[in-house]
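In the laboratory, one determines a bound structure by crystallizing the protein with its ligand and collecting diffraction data. In a computational setting the workflow is compressed into a single prediction: the sequence and the ligand go in, and a structural description comes out. We illustrate the idea with LXAUTJHC.
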Amino acid sequence: MLHKWGAAQRCAARNESAKSNKQAIRPCVARLSVRSALSSRQIRCSAIEQSAAPTLSRASSNGSSSGVVAELDEKQEAEQQAVAADPVLAYNLEKNDWTASSLSVVVLGASGDLAKKKIFPALFSLYYEGLLPENFQVFGYARSKMTDAEFRDMITSTLTCRVNARERCAEAQERFLKRCFYQAGPYDEPGGFQALSTRLGEQEAVKPRANRMFFLSIPPNVFLSATGNAADHARSKSGWTRVIVEKPFGRDSASSAELGRGLAQHLAEDEIYRIDHYLGKELIENLTVLRFSNRVFEPLWSRQYIRNVQIIFSENFGTEGRGGYFDQYGIIRDVIQNHLLQIVALFAMEQPVSLDAEDIRNEKVKVLRSMKVVAPEDVVMGQYRARGKLPGYLDDKTVPEGSLTPTFAAIAMFINNHRWDGVPFLFKAGKALHKRYAEIRVQFRHVPGNLYRDKQGADPDAACNELVIRIQPKEAIYLKINNKVPGLGLRLEQTRLDLQYQQQYQVELPDAYERLLLDVVNGDKRLFIRYDELQAAWDLYTPVLHELERSQAAPELYPYGSRGPLGAHYLAARHNVRWGDLADDADDE
Ligand SMILES: NC(=O)C1=CN([C@@H]2O[C@H](COP(=O)(O)OP(=O)(O)OC[C@H]3O[C@@H](n4cnc5c(N)ncnc54)[C@H](OP(=O)(O)O)[C@@H]3O)[C@@H](O)[C@H]2O)C=CC1
Ligand SMILES: O=C1O[C@H](COP(=O)(O)O)[C@@H](O)[C@H](O)[C@H]1O
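The predicted complex, in structure-token form:
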């Protein structure tokens, strides 16, 4: 895992220096035992371990850190005692050889919504699972004044235990809270960050290598100043520094490039982790597994068999309370240009050379660069209005009067490459709709010369195969097939080959932020967005966004709790498509 990745780097560096000094090169081999019951993620990590170097004890045998080794020996006994009293630590240490390193996670904007809703709970879950190093601490940083105790009180209520793994959870929470500290300070001045760095140093003192991870959970207006101050005044001097940047990554190609240039003044690209939490969702991570490990799907995965692909995001709540942010961005920038487009990139890419981050991202960026720039006639926008007691978008006091910002959009996109030419990729995303769900629908072509044409009812479209990947809730993968209704007659009906995660796996799925935070700890960038991907994504949307703003195009109003504006159906029909979620709604209800 991360520390082994670091170990691998150190080993490689040692060998590089050995090479130049004409000394013997030693193999980079791990000496760890790994628990037998590993998750697939852990197995992936253990694969890294195979090529990783042993950590400090061996790295230091080149003579440069013998003092450190002596110090470590002294610490070892104390550590063993601590481990004996702490099963989480024991488990953690068994899998992680962080003997030489510490990890500090600094959450900037620690008093905010995202930090409380997602980041602290995810960190706790990782801690509970024993996936964080033994020498690990969390620092909250924000302008609000708080003591460590108040900070701990604030986050206590955010920590939850899994339904299926809650043994000694309350004790683990207490131990976790003891590792949480708070530093108040501004984002745009160095003072607070210098104080933060000093306090981090106090906690890290027991380990010679201090790794620091910063999560920018702050509004975009302070992204750059906070990054600059964190990188210049609180960066690690002995280990790595990684900065997680939350969206929005700008508003268009130009502002995104400006943000990119600003970040690059303080950080190297490999220190920047642009998070898109949809990439951390279980079913999205499974997309490549489904495609590339099953012989049955990949041959069908092209214009030859697939008629259209639909990526649907629906929320049954509005933007109440977030109007200030949302009105600046709208649904296209909030969800479609990032989350949904990333899904398409993964869905449509060619098989990567390997599962390495750069190989995957190389393929994703090719898809994005092959896509046709969105045309204004391929966009339908909507805005929810009040229905009964449910408030309309404009009723939110934080939304400017008469705002034209879309809370719903349906968009048709095309990929101009050999595999996908002519296949509509339809996006539909909206707030304040009738249900909350997100899914990918793959509609297959009609069966040519269908023998059973007259046994399937009047609607040939209703007999087409459809593969549905339900991202949330009730994660599922099902394939709609035609089947003979049992009995003496010959009548066909459409039914499902159905994989329901709840039934099949009976485990609580980890939250996307858990997966992604662990990936940052591990230095794994597969699920993070590379700068060229980001720019390619903006280039597809910037012209239409500018045009819609210039023309002051008015969104079609739809009632809160409805299925969205009718225009979405006209758009689909123009591309010879029917939205699959409507038919399934009827089946599911
Ligand atoms: N909330 C969510 O579900 C999601 C959020 N995001 C992104 O994550 C980031 C954080 O989101 P969220 O937690 O909702 O944001 P908040 O509005 O809750 O802001 C986070 C913290 O930043 C500080 N802050 C707020 N406004 C300002 C300002 N104008 N200038 C300086 N500091 C300010 C506040 O802390 P203090 O005053 O104590 O310094 C606040 O607690 C944003 O970039 C957001 O777009 C992305 C996806 C989902
Ligand atoms: O990034 C965002 O995502 C959420 C939806 O995330 P989910 O994991 O709950 O599906 C969305 O509500 C929000 O507007 C957007 O900024």
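DSSP finds 19 helices and 15 strands in the chain. Keep in mind that any predicted model is a hypothesis to be tested, not a measurement.
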